[in-house]
Amino acid sequence: MDKMIERFPDQLAEALRLAETVTIKKHSSPIRAVLISGLGGSGIGGNFVQALSADECKVPIWVNKGYLVPKWVNKHTLAICSSYSGNTEETLHVFDQLKSAGAKIVCIASGGKLLDMARELGLDFVQVPGGWSSPRACLGYSVVAQLAVLRAAKLLSGRLFRQIEAGRKLLVKDQADIRKRAQKLAGFLAEKTPVLYSADHIEAVGMRWRQQINENAKMLCWHHVVPEMNHNELVGWRNNRPDVAVVWLRNRDDFGRTSVRMDINKEIVEHFTNTSIEVYSKGKSLAEKMLYLTHLGDWMSFYLALARNVDPVEIKVIDYLKGELAKV
What we know:
The protein has helices spanning 2-6, 8-19, 40-53, 89-98, 112-121, 139-152, 159-173, 175-189, 203-217, 256-269, 286-307, 316-326, and strands at residues 33-37, 61-64, 77-82, 104-109, 124-127, 193-199, 222-226, 244-250, 275-280. It is of the alpha/beta class. It folds into 2 domains: 2-165, Glucose-6-phosphate isomerase like protein, domain 1 (Rossmann fold, 3-Layer(aba) Sandwich), CATH 3.40.50; 174-307, Rossmann fold, CATH 3.40.50.10490. The protein starts with a helix and ends with a helix.
């Protein structure tokens, strides 16, 4: 896992080169909405794309993480099916439904049934490099490939790709410091239940941290966003929780009222837990900031696994679940 995390900047570079080759056939109807379907390591890419595209893409983007296709999907929908293996059960089920919806379908995978069906039906697809044992380590491929499809559909310009390249350079430059910060964070969280809070527009980062803590460190945790948590979860902070460690994922240019809320939230929460840590991003653009926090969180989850003496790659319980599902 450490080798895969270490290769993340190189993966971004490879993904950006691949993005330059992505083209899609013209659709018969104008695109008025985007559906991105994917689960786990493939699904989180959709959340990043949704956040990064929010101030440029003029059509709504919906991230779908289940078996069923929303009723609004039709001939005016660009539907991206993303599965690193190409064999994700839920995504294949969505694909089958999309065929009769009239949507413009584009598949993203390293191989598997998804690409086989795309080729058989003459659909557009992006084949990302294979050979990675953990799909969750392939976030760079997922995000950049999906953005490339949106650009090919003329829904995005090249601005985000330049920002991702700047973020990649930042990760290379700050690699030693990122790993040092990650080790320190892991030390704070090792014997606690992590609680992650962020501004709503970077919820994808909090979600990524949670998923990486779950899979790599084999720990339960939860995440929430400000301001939404101010209308519900904040009231749950009522008793002392020495077993909980709160991480505030922040940008120095978060929306002003949101920043004020987070300051007040932190003051309230610290009455009930002694472990409360602010983690600020680095970078100029939103893409750089999100990539920085993501890479920091990936390293943190790896060091957390070491501290807990667990294998960060092993996912036997998911393999068991898939085996049991296959019997039904």
